Structures are given as C-alpha cells and as structure tokens.
TrEMBL record:
Entry's EC annotation: 3.1.26.5
Annotated PANTHER family: MITOCHONDRIAL RIBONUCLEASE P CATALYTIC SUBUNIT, PTHR13547
Protein name: ribonuclease P
Organism whose genome encodes this protein: Populus alba x Populus x berolinensis
Known cofactor(s): Mg(2+)
Subcellular compartments: Mitochondrion
GO cellular component annotations of the record: mitochondrion
Amino acid sequence: MLLCTSSTFFAPSFNAKSSQYLCSYFTKKTHLLSFFKNSPICCNHSYLFSKHIKDSNFIGAHSLFMKKKATFSNSAISATSQSDEKSVGGNVVSKRLKKKVRRDAPEGVLRFKLDMCSKVGDVVEGLRLYDEARRNGVELNQHHYNVMLYLCSQNRGENGSDLKLACKRGFEIFQQMIIDKVPPNEATFTNAARLASVMEDPEMAFDLVKQMKGFGIMPKLRSYGPPLFGFCKKGMVDKAYEVDAHMIESGVVAEEPELSSLLKISADVNNADKMYELLHRLRTSVRQVTESTVGVIEDWFKSEHAAKIGKGDWDVIKVREGVVRGGGGWHGQGWLGHGQWRVVRTQMDKKGVCGSCGERLACIDIDPRETEKFAISLSKLAFGREVKADFIRFQEWLQQHGPFDAVVDGANVSLINQQTFNFSQLNNVVNRLHDMSPSKKFPLVILHKSRVNGGPAQSPCNKKLLERWKNSGALYATPAGSNDDWYWLYAAVSCKCLLVTNDEMRDHLFQLLGTSFFPRWKEKHQVRLSVSRSGIDLHMPPPYSIVIQESENGGWHVPTTTGDDLETPRQWLCATRPVKR
C-alpha cells in the first residue's frame, strides 16, 4: 500500500511496464494526476478519485501512440471516406460537400463550439460541452482534448476553488485522453505542464516535458515555460538550471523571457559565473533587450557582490585574441576589473561613441560562410512558398545581371508617406544610390508585375522610366501570385549588398528565418528612408553593431529596445569600473 501525504509528489508515468493495474488519483489539495502500479492507494486527503486501468489497455494505447502510420478518425470522417465511393446525381461527392459533412457531424459541431470557448476563454461552457459530448457518445479526437486542456490551463478563476476545480477537471480530461487511446502531441504535454504550473508544481510540469521524447515528440520553447518560470518563481535555482540544460540538450534556444528569468534568479543567489554566461547568451540570441531585462542587468551591476568579482590583472594578449576570434565586440575571458561599477543610461553618437564612457563600439564582422548558408536556406524556403520555376528563373537572371551594390524594395519605397504609388519618389532614391555606387551601377529595383504593367506605370513618363531601368538590367518584375519579399531579400543576401526598405521584416515570413543570423545581417545591410518637405534622407547602416558588447577593459554596453535610432535615439546601459593594471 502507498501512503500519500500532502508533501508527497508522484509525477505521471507513461511507461508501459508489466503490472496488473494502473491507478490514477486526484487529491483535494494538489489535484495531481498520477499512475501507480501494483498497489492500492491510501491518501490522507478527504477528496479522492480512483479508477483502475488495465495494463493491457494502456500498453495498447502506448503502442498506438508510437506507430507513425497509425490513423485516428472520428465517425464523421469515416462516414465521409465511405461516401467517396458513392455518387450524388451521377457525380462523385465534392470536396465542399465532404467538408460540410465533417462540419455538420457531432464531432465537427463540438469542435466549432469548443474553439469559440477557447477564443473567449469560457472554461465553464467548455466543460459543459465536453460533459454533454461524453454523455451523448460523441467520439473525441486529439483537437477536442487539446482545446479542453488549454481552456483548463488558462483559467484563473474568481477564487481559489474555481482554480482548483478547473485544474482537477483538466487532469481528469488528460487521464481520459489516455484511456481513450487518443495520441498526444506537443500541445497535449505543454497544456498538461501548464496545468501543473497553475497548481504551482513545476516538478510535475518538468516531468511531463521530459516524457515527451519517449513518445517521439520534441519539446518546443513554450513547453519549457511552465517548469522554468515555476522553478524561478520558487527560487529553486538548481532545478531552473536543470530545465535550462534540458532545453539546450533538446536544441531549443531560449529567448529573452527565459534568459531574463535565469538572469534574475542567478543574480539573487550571486552566481557571477552564470550571470556572465547568460549575458553572452543574451548577446547572441536577443541582441537588444526590453526594459524589464535591462532592469535585472542594472540591478546586478549595482549589487555589492558584482563589485567584488573580477580579475584585477589579466592577459591583454589573450583578451585581444578573444576579441579577434569572436569577430569583435566581446572576448569571453570572464569578468575583468575590480570594484564598484559605474552604471548609467546613455546614448551613442552616429559613430558609435558612448556618451558616458567615451568608448567606441565595435562593428562586428559577419562570417561570409554564414551569409552563403543563409542564402541557401532562404532559397529553400522560397522554393516551398513560391512557384519553383519562377524563382529559379529569377536566380538565373540575377546571376546574369548581378551583382548589384544595392537592392530596392520598389513598392515599399514608392509608398513611404504617399497615398498612391509614387514613381518619382522611387526614381529619386534610385538616382541617389546610383550616384553613391562605386561602380556607378543602377541598383536592382524589384517590383511586382502588376506595378510594372498597370496603374501609374501606364503614364508616358513612368513608362520611359521603367524602360530605362529595364534596358540597364536594373528592373525585375516578379510574376503574378508571387510574394516580392522573397525576391528582394534573396537578391540582397546573395549579392552581399545594401537593401533599401522601411519594411521592418517582422511578420511570419521573416520569422521563418530565425533569430540568430538574420537580425545581424539586417543591421549591417538595411538602408531606411525618411521623407520630409526637404527631401528624402537615406539612413545607412550604423558603423557599429547594436548588440550587447563587452570591451577589452571589462566594460559592458547593453542596447535597449527603447528608441529606433532614426527619430528617437536608442537608449543604452553603460557599466564600467576603474581598471587596475
């Protein structure tokens, strides 16, 4: 017999080992889902649910989960697949009709209603619909269960009892999903981990994440949030580091919220080595940080412990070699200097000179091999989203007419501060770039075919302008149905040249490119424009890198997301201290 006290924790186990029964339970205080083997349960809480699950059933579920080709379908889909063989009025059932059959089936109606509950966060109605569906024998699929788990995990309730009830029901639903042999996915485990987080049980949340790989499911960054933030909130630093290590092992890159939480807990326990490591990880993956993260870093530099750590003497040659090896802007040799830090908020001038300490920031090099790899990955992404033959034709054209010193996002430039497409404004920018070009070559103008053949392009003046660019090999019209973003970005990357656009490249298309190399490339290649009554100003890439930098004398400069360097100067955190050599 297993005796459970309020402090005892048993994480759910999904390993299908031989035993007579698998037993699940909830307690009134913790409402945790657990599976126990070979023993009845005695619990000292007043609220207990217990249901036996035969091992043979569970093993069958596990077997089904692990079969990659296993298929699960509800009755509506099954009925639809059978109707494919039938005909209506002599014609095969259309896709539209099959879709309507799915939508109007009990499973489809339930899906729609649950999605609406998820949209507005109505957990009460969601639970009512779920209970009604089970009473009526509606077969629930993965999506139904995941929506319910999400609803229960997001519920905060008006009082503690509502919160506990939602979590208890959430774990019941999670258990039922396993009993019904519905295969879990990443969202299933992540939502279950969120349920554990709501109950302030990061141990259980982490255990759920660790079990994902056993089902052939790779955790995502969002999967690690519940255990990591939970451990950080409780001050369990070693467990937080364990989650971080598991993330790294799984190839998941932490972003600012995760790194900021790790910085905070590391500062709280005066772990200087971890602070140093995390600042460099922040430098690599985030570059500019939000105000909340700046506050954590600022508090660390102002702390008494930060004043005590650091090398009074160091190998200057080794530090400089580290700077060269890293491409500039950091050395990685640890904390340098000793004594109290001078911490101020400041700005950089146009040359990258700090307004506080007078140090000039570095312009960090980009490895040409990284650029080549990026161009290849960019073309692969474009092949998957554009007509492949069209994009290959563009690549061949670019090889024949390139390279260029600059590429212009024609549509974006023509519409800056304009209500209609302005060829005159575009021509002004093209001529400016032509005059600036060392080779006196026209920049490449990328325009959609519709912009070249219709609208303002039909005027005699604009026709003459377009013909001039075309004859100079400086105009490419992207085909109908294409996204010209892929074309101008690929051209700029492959030509290793400037890209003229005010597009901040933050939408879903550019998110596909990742957060490591692309921001660095954009910083060194994007030319922005501002239009005023006095004319057009081209804002060239800064002569320094807007990224966390570590100087050779031990100082640190941290850029914030406050300011854009065009109209509002960017704010920086400068941390320096006397150098004792």
